[in-house]
Amino acid sequence: MSDVNLTISTILIISPMHRELKRLIENESVEQSFRFKSEEEVTDTDLDWADAIATFNSQADFDYSKVKWVHSLGAGVDRFLHNKSWDENVLLTRTICSFGQRIAQYSLSYILQDLQQHQLFAQDGKQKKWEPRTPVLVKDKKAVIYGTGEIGQETAKVLSLFGMDVYGVSRSGQQKDFFTKVFAMNEGQSELKDVGYIINTLPLTAETKSLFNESLFSCFTQAGFINVGRGASVDEDALLQAIDKGAVRFAVLDVFREEPLPSGHPFWDHPKITITPHISAVTTPDEAVSCFIDTLFNIEQNKELLNQVDIKKGY
Q1: Which residue, 40, 116, 166, 305, is most buried by CB atoms nearer than 10 A?
Q2: Superfamily of domain 10-97+283-300
Q3: Which stretches make up the D-isomer specific 2-hydroxyacid dehydrogenase NAD-binding domain (predicted)?
Q4: Catalytic residue flag (residue 230)
């Protein structure tokens, strides 16, 4: 990304963990003035005071063109950009930390659980039933990862270490390390029809909204679906139908169109769906501050920002 030249004096940190962030930032050598607030505590006066804002969520009705820099404390920036206009004079950056490692391990854990047949053995144990089953080797399965950025690449790296053939799907189709082959969107369906696992790591953009629909799911047969990207990328009714028809054998879902997931949602009671509460890639206070301080330093030194968001692409 391009270099930037900004003077930042006042920074507003908005986060549920604002106290932890305050403690850590106060130990850093920074000259700026800070305010640390929860979302419930933020006032218009706070917003008007700030040159820069670091937060997880977009503040309703706030005109971000009033500030010089916005830093997302999470990996995603769809809350700021999706279906919204953004002043390109306002710098937007995002947090980069251990998200790739966390999501890779999350995905691997559910793949191993499936291949090692943990749930079946647990059921057998409850019934005191001795029934030998042969686990399947990771190297004998294929996976496709939608999204070949840092998170997708790290996931591909981990899976490929076990000998798995990992395919990628991205906006450009550009080849990346650790992928057997990368396809552009809407390509490669015939080659991907027999993959064992589908992993979504894509950000939410106009292109990826409801990408996983009836048409796409119909390209697969008995695949496990893991969603660690964004909930709005999945047509929920289409996913349920895909499970019923056998295109999807099971689903592990960490993100949803509505969060928290409503108690009456059909996902909760579905025997082939596992739900986790958006924990596959949490931002820890230490990592949040480390990335934020590094970004602030690079802005002050007019250095390249590797975590600058491309507004047109949406990530």
Answers
A1: 166
A2: NAD(P)-binding Rossmann-like Domain (3.40.50.720)
A3: 109-280
A4: yes
Collect all residues with Cβ–Cβ distance below 8 Å to 54 and sequence separation of at least 6. Answer: 11, 12, 13, 14, 15, 70, 71, 72, 73, 292
Q: Which stretches of the chain drop beneath a pLDDT of 70? A: 1-3
CA torsion, points 43, 47, 49, 54, in degrees to nearest 10? 120
What are the tens digits of pLDDT across the range 172-227? 999 999 999 999 998 998 899 999 999 999 999 999 999 999 999 999 999 999 99
- Measured N-to-C along each axis, helices 99-115 and 150-161 cross at an angle, to the nearest 10 degrees, of 40
Catalytic site residue from 230, 249, 257, 270? 230
Asked if 278 is an active-site residue, the reply is yes
CATH 3.40.50.720 domain position(s) in the chain? 10-97+283-300, 99-275
